[in-house]
Amino acid sequence: MIATFQIARRLIQFIPVAAALISIAAALATTTATAAVPTTIAVQGSISAAVGPAADGDYFLTFAIYGVKEGGVAAWKDPPQIVPLKNGVFSTTIGVASVISPQVVGALAEAWLGVTVGSDPELARRPLSSTIFALRAAAADALDCSGCIGAGHIDPKVLGAYAKAADLSAYAKNGDLQAFAQKVDLADFVKAAALAKVAGSGDYKDLLNTPKFADVAVSGAYGDLSGLPKLAAVATSGKYADLTGSPVMAKLGEACGTNLVMRGIKVDGSYDCVAGGLTADQLPKDGLDEISNGLLTNQFTDSFPSGKTPLDIPDSLGAGISDTINVLDLGISQGITVSVDLSNSDISKVRVSVFDPNGAVYKLYDQGGTGNALKATYPAPDKMVSGDLSTWNGKNPQGIWSINVADLAGTQGGKDGKLNGWSIKIQTLSTKKVAAQGTLVANAGLKLTVAASHPVTCDGSQMGYVYVNSKDKAMYVCNGAEWYPLALSVFGTQANPALHCNELKAKQPTAPNGLYWIDPDGGSAADALQTYCDMTSYGGGWTLVARMTNGCMTDSNGAVGSLTSLSQGACAKLSDAHINAIRTAGGSGGVFWGFHDNGSHKLPASGRFLKITAGSFDANKAQGGLLQQCSCQPNGPFSNSYNSVASMAGVYNHSSSGGWECVAAGNNGCDNTTVFSSGLFLYQHVLNQPGTFPSNSHGISGGANGWLLVR
After folding, report:
1. For residues 519 and 494, what is the distance between their CA atoms, to the nearest angstrom?
2. Are the C-beta atoms of residues 321 and 405 closer than 8 Å to each other?
3. What is the pLDDT of residues 332-373, one digit of tens each?
4. Strands 514-518 and 529-534, how do they pair?
């Protein structure tokens, strides 16, 4: 707000000379002035804005008097007062609340009036001019003292018109003046009744033939000025609506209709509405982090290091040494960098080039520096010699990338340094995955991919991949090398049987030893059977398939009895078909674990482990149907039986001469006690009592106490 002001001179009473002379005597005789000097000042001014007068209304104005034009401390200051403003003009009186002391003003060499509007900075000061009262105040009307004026204080010129007593005639000293009286000639004087009215009233309006002033001189109103500038409507109304050329503003209070959202604001201020919000093609492809407040992103940086380095660099061979990196299908590239680390006796003779899947060459380094090592990243911060990797921006860099390092000097046939390593780092705008930067809270649930088989190969690049297998009802997690199953239901029940004990161990690692339901053929739960699972010995997952007691032999292809525990007294066996199914699908290569205690011929508690290497398993098959190998450990090493008859032609017929041991003492990590296991674990007896069991090698008359498990 800009304000200007001017000081209006106040009209006062005019006193003719004659009247003044008449009152001299009275003035000398009194102790007070004939007219009191006012202590207030009338002030009139105008306040304007950048486009004209300020809007009408009440304003807080503060007035102060200074002795200097700028700076300094106010000699007098009036409290803020509310002053009405009409058409940009105000009129007020100062000195009412705070008296303007003559002593304060009189002490100033010059006086400047300052005005402050509200809390705005003070406006430029204006000098105070004399007024009629100020001029009148220069002459004293009366002297209020007693004995304070002596003869020495009076200028002789003042008394020049007066006679001294010594100069007076005798009649002047005589109290009787009658004798000296003379008739005074009063012709030059007028009577009081003959004076004009103004001589007595002192009122300006009693003057005759006064000059004609403009209306504004009387009213002081801005509207009475002639030749006023033409103001815009807003100058007098103060309304925003009266402005011309104002900016287009949004039309507040409006709204888009149902199922519409605002996309922007049109030129006329109305809303630009579209149906259903922004469509996918209206969103930036890399804008996921922006619209999710940085919580989601589909922008990734993936690094592909060489798995074959370090590689020797041939000395003085232009063909050099090459290596490749397979870049997976990650999405759209937003930037590619290649890092190289090599050593050489003189890198000033080395050239390094990279080839993209299309065969284009990018020369990274070409005999440019000195030293014996090069560690650089291209194209930034290190500068390439030729080629532009940014041409891949917006494209999928999937494919085989290769590097060639050539030593162009030296002695051929030798080696000079190594390509210690190199890698490709790709910033991608992925079309395959999304990352949650914060904690993912799925209030409505989280649905994983469901597949009947592993959807991707589990390797380092897929570590952490999770999916649900619809076939075995388990959740699988890639640990960077293999899929690890997590059961989503209780396995080993009649309603949800496992294929075998080893599958149960994989899906429920903490499952204890005990009875479980299995379905070896994987058909349905309807033909599931119950057996004992050893979940702790040798890594667990062993399925009990045969139990021999008291010379009993399980001698049929079909199942015999019920397997409930290792300590059961009854003889029992699973069918050959089920045993074969477990052996071929157990996940451990089909290893049998058998042990028995049969008097002088026994296996220790550790038992022996056997693998069928040829032939099919059939308890009723004739001699020579199987080829077997033995070991003292479930993971081998396995070898042919020691002292075997017919060179391990298969199942041994005990009626033949000679006997054989599964593994001789000290072989394959076995203990040093020679243990006989004639007939081994898989055994066709001569007395037409076929079966699968750890058996007594001396016929059915001997005691038998053995177990056979498979994994």
Report:
1. 9
2. yes
3. 899 999 999 999 999 999 999 999 999 999 999 999 889 999
4. antiparallel
- Give the integer Cα–Cα distance in Å for 709 and 586: 12
* DSSP letter for each residue of 586-636: SSSSSEEEEEEEETTEE--TT-EEEEEEES---TTPPTT--EEEEESSTT-
**What would the two tokens of residue 3 be?**
């304000």
Which residues contact residue 167 at a Cβ distance below 8 angstroms, ignoring those fewer than 6 apart? none
Tell me how many helices (H) and strands (E) the chain has.
11, 37
Name the CA radius of gyration of the chain, rounded.
61
Tally Cβ neighbours within 10 Å of residue 503.
25
Residue 657: band (very low, low, confident or very high) from pLDDT cuts 50, 70, 90: very low
Q: What are the residue boundaries of the structural domains of the chain, listed by start?
A: 1-244, 247-282, 300-430, 447-487, 501-710
Bond into 381 cis (ω within 30): yes
Separation between Cα atoms, residue 123 and residue 54, nearest integer Å: 15
Given pLDDT bands bounded at 50, 70 and 90, which one contains residue 508?
A: confident
Among 500, 510, 589, which Cα is nearest to 545's?
A: 500
Phi, psi at 176, each rounded to 5°? -95, 110
Strand residue runs (E) in 344-488: 350-355, 361-366, 373-378, 399-407, 415-430, 435-436, 450-451, 466-469, 474-478, 483-487
Per residue in 269-279, pLDDT (tens digit) is 788 887 765 56
Residue among 312, 321, 521, 300 nearest 425 (CA): 300
Handedness of CA 229, 234, 238, 243 (dihedral sign): negative
Half-sphere exposure of 418 (CA within 13 A, CB side): 6
Cβ(582)–Cβ(543) below 8 Å? yes
Which of helix, strand or coil describes residue 34?
coil
pLDDT of residue 26: 28
Q: Which residues contact 356 (CB under 8 A, 6 or more apart)?
A: 362, 392, 397, 399, 401
Query: Using CA atoms, how far apart are residues 477 and 475, in angstroms rounded to an integer?
Result: 7
Q: Where are the alpha helices (DSSP H) in 283-327?
A: 288-291
Tell me the fold of 300-430: Jelly Rolls (2.60.120)
HEC string for 495-560: CCCECCHHHHHHHCCCCCCEEEEECCCCCCHHHCEEEEEECCHHHCCEEEEEEEECCCCCCCCCCE
Longest dimension (CA), the chain: 204
C-beta neighbour count of 95 within 10 angstroms: 18
Half-sphere exposure of 200 (CA within 13 A, CB side): 7
**Number of C-beta neighbours around residue 185 at 10 A:** 7
Q: How far is CA 589 from CA 95, 545, 663, in A?
A: 114, 16, 20
pLDDT on residue 665 = 43
Phi, psi of 674 (to 5 degrees): -70, 120
